[in-house]
Amino acid sequence: RRLYFDTHALVCLLEENGFTTQQSEVIVSALVKIMNTNLDMIYKDMVTKVQQEIALQQVMSHIGGVKKDMIILEKSEFSALRSENEKIKLELQQIKKQVMDEITKVRADNKLNLNLEKSRVKELHAQQDRALTQTDRKIDTEVADLKTMLESHKLDNIKYLAGSVFTCLTVALGFYRLWI
């Protein structure tokens, strides 16, 4: 253990600054004791090169063992992960197939429902067209009947008018003959 400062020079410096010789020596000896105590504590925590080499070799052997264990675990876990991954792939394929089947089924059901609705709409239009045609025929028949009746009444009116005119003419000719 060596102190890397001059204790005598420190004593002289303290004396120059107003300390007595005895005070300066006491201060310097206290500083030396404190420094020695600190160095003892530091040396307790330090290791020698031999101890450091031994500790390094122990750590390296532990690291080697851990590496071996990690490689073994990695291989076993990797194979387990690979088999689990294969299982998940198979399950995904099955689920995908089921989903595609369901989609196909829903599409077929929708097409069927759409075709049924189209046929119902066509049938409804056909019924409406038949009803409209029947209504048109009834209207045409009624109009024809009304025209026939109108013509019949027209002829009757012409007959009565002609009869009335001839009657009036006959009466007028009769009065005319009587007065003449």
Helix count equals: 3
What number of domains?
2
Number of β-strand runs: 0
Amount of beta strand? under 5%
User: What overall form do the CA principal axes indicate?
Assistant: rod-shaped
What's the order of the H and E elements? Answer: HHH
Q: Structural class of the helix and strand makeup? A: mainly alpha
Biggest sheet overview: none
Question: Which value, in Å, is the CA radius of gyration?
Answer: 66 Å
Which residues sit in consecutive blocks of at least 5 with pLDDT less than 50? none
In short:
The protein is mostly helical and 180 residues long.
Write the layout of secondary structure elements.
Blueprint: H1 7-16, H2 21-45, H3 49-179
Helix pairs in contact: 1-2
How would you describe this structure to a colleague?
This is MCUR1 regulator. This protein has 180 residues and is mainly α. The protein folds into 2 domains: 1-45, no CATH class; 46-176. The protein contains 3 helices and no strands. The protein is rod-shaped and about 200 Å long. The termini are far apart. The model has no long low-confidence stretch (mean pLDDT 89).
Could you name the key traits of this structure?
single chain; 180 residues; mainly alpha; 2 domains; 92% helix
